[in-house]
Design goal:
This protein has 242 residues and is α+β, with helices and mostly antiparallel strands. It is 34% helix and 28% strand. The protein has 2 domains: 13-137, no CATH class; 145-241.
């Protein structure tokens, strides 16, 4: 059962409580996640310009106190659009898929993994699934989860901003897009060719700098990249919870 009764957020996520689903449609692509709380499963579909892509079905489990509130999930079924063709069924990669290039990726997907704020299954799905399992995560626990993550991300943004103030490493921070988040980038990129820019962005020094930086900030690089949108969504949910 869910303790929410809201339809659409300003971040573009639309909630259909009757269907237990959350969706986002930007006019070009559409993502739909439908939750089946009794089965502890959810289904994810993605389409572009009205053309269906793969359907993914996952099973999930929720951990709570005394452990941190977390969702772990794994792929059980991967189905190509009609006529339905299974690539993964009941958590097993079918034999005809083993020789394909995506075999290693599928092996990872059928293994249990933690649901992250900025993963392929992201923050909106994480919050929605938790809201649909109020027998596990109480309303008070859910509010606490939202508040702790809001505080963690804000603190992480501040720590990241303070860390890149040192001009000696030639970095600066820019918004990637108005509703998204932030990106760490080199300051001295003007005059460089595309090839030179790409080489600098993907350099070992830059990669190691970011890895070291985000190990100390309490947020991931992906969360930093989506921080504006995540915080806006959390704010909307907390308003509903008042």
């Amino acid at each position: 059962m869910s303790f929410f009764n809201w339809r659409k957020s300003n971040t573009g996520w639309k909630i259909d409580q009757e269907k237990n689903q959350i969706s986002k449609d930007d006019g070009f692509s559409k993502m739909v996640t439908r939750v089946f709380p009794e089965l502890k499963k959810f289904e994810s579909t993605f389409s572009m310009q009205g053309v269906d892509s793969f359907k993914r079905i996952y099973e999930y489990k929720i951990s709570t106190f005394p452990n941190p509130t977390e969702i772990h999930f794994r792929l059980t079924d991967l189905i190509e659009p009609p006529p339905d063709h299974y690539m993964v069924k009941d958590g097993v990669i079918l034999e005809n898929e083993i020789a394909r290039d995506n075999f290693e990726s599928l092996k990872k997907e059928i293994s249990w993994q933690k649901m992250e704020m900025s993963g392929d299954v992201g923050y909106a799905q994480l919050f929605f699934i938790l809201s649909k399992n109020s027998e596990i995560v109480s309303r008070a626990e859910y509010r606490d989860f939202l508040f702790k993550n809001q505080t963690r991300i804000i603190s992480g943004i501040i720590k990241t901003q303070e860390a890149i103030k040192d001009d000696s490493i030639g970095l600066f921070e820019i918004d990637t897009y108005s509703s998204g988040g932030k990106l760490i980038q080199y300051r001295d990129m003007k005059g460089l060719s595309v090839k030179e820019r790409m080489a600098k962005i993907h350099s070992e020094d830059f990669t190691n700098f970011k890895k070291n930086l985000f190990s100390k900030t309490g947020i991931t690089e992906k969360e930093f990249g989506d921080c504006n949108e995540i915080l806006k969504h959390i704010g909307e949910l907390m308003e509903v919870e008042k």
